[in-house]
Amino acid sequence: MAVKILKPVSNARRGMSVDDFSDVTKKKPEKSLTVTLKKKSGRNNQGKITVRHRGGGEKRKYRIIDFKMNEDIKGKILAIEYDPNRNARIALVEKENGKKMYMIAPKGAKVGGKVVSGTDAEVRSGHRMALKDIPVGTVIYNVELTPGRGGQLARSAGTKVQLMAKEGKFVQIKLPSSEQRLIDENCLASIGEVSNPEHKNIKVGKAGRKRHMGIRPTVRGKAMNPVDHPHGGGEAANSIGLTHPKTPWGMPALGYKTRKKKSISNKMIVRGRKR
Predict the structure, then answer these.
(1) DSSP letter string over 52-100?
(2) pLDDT score of 275
(3) Which part of the chain is CATH 2.40.50.140?
(4) 8 Å CB contact between 203 and 17
């Protein structure tokens, strides 16, 4: 994949860049592996907004991706596809029994490549196995936190996790945030790093493109009235008048730690992330 910089034929186009999709080999998704994605616009079952700045956007189908791959699988990559629901590429894999599935494509995945999961898997990009069978120092992605639950860590474009050490029934991994934690050795992980690492270099360029993504405008609290936001009020370019920034509901924001101090998983964290 490469990033294509557009010519500055207008103010909106100046500085804009797009994905050239050179690594995508198939345009339309596999119909049997897609479901209708209903728009929620940030509302809950009562119709109240629980996530702000959502709404609109292009219609899209959800691709059913196998994040678990917890059975013995031997397959071949049929195509590398674009997924509008994530920034990583997905791979269409045909298993030995003829069934098809989607998986998160690793960096460098090619059509015709082999995908193996289970006890027969080798330490090769895209293969999936238990953490206890992976050598120390290996780069991995789509890592499980609980055995059998499916991958939850390192699933976005260009991310990777490094296996640092093995300690009894646990292995120590280093996350992209630099946090180091322990995970059960029976958890599964895929070898390699997630595809599409250049995604972080794309510049949206204009507001209309954000609307196509389903993201609505965000107003600064400082530009509001005091009745609408803790930062509101004042004349011209005044400060927020507070020691620390707050959310519209008065909770501390921007750097405030929201992790529960009594969380059960705290004991699994060896070293916290660096700020």
Answers:
(1) SSB------EEE-B-S---S-EEEEEEEEE--TTSSS-EEEEEETTS-E
(2) 65
(3) 3-200
(4) yes
- Tell me where in the chain the CATH 4.10.950.10 domain(s) lie: 221-275
- Name the class of domain 3-200: mainly beta
CATH superfamily, domain at 221-275: Ribosomal protein L2, domain 3 (4.10.950.10)
Name residue, tokens 């899209």.
60
**3-class secondary structure per residue, 237-266:** CCCCCCCCCECCCCCECCCCCCCCCCCHHH
pLDDT along the chain (275 residues), means of 10: 89 91 93 94 95 94 94 93 96 94 95 91 92 94 94 95 94 94 95 95 94 95 94 88 93 89 90 81
Instruction: Please tell me the predicted confidence (pLDDT) of residue 1.
Output: 61
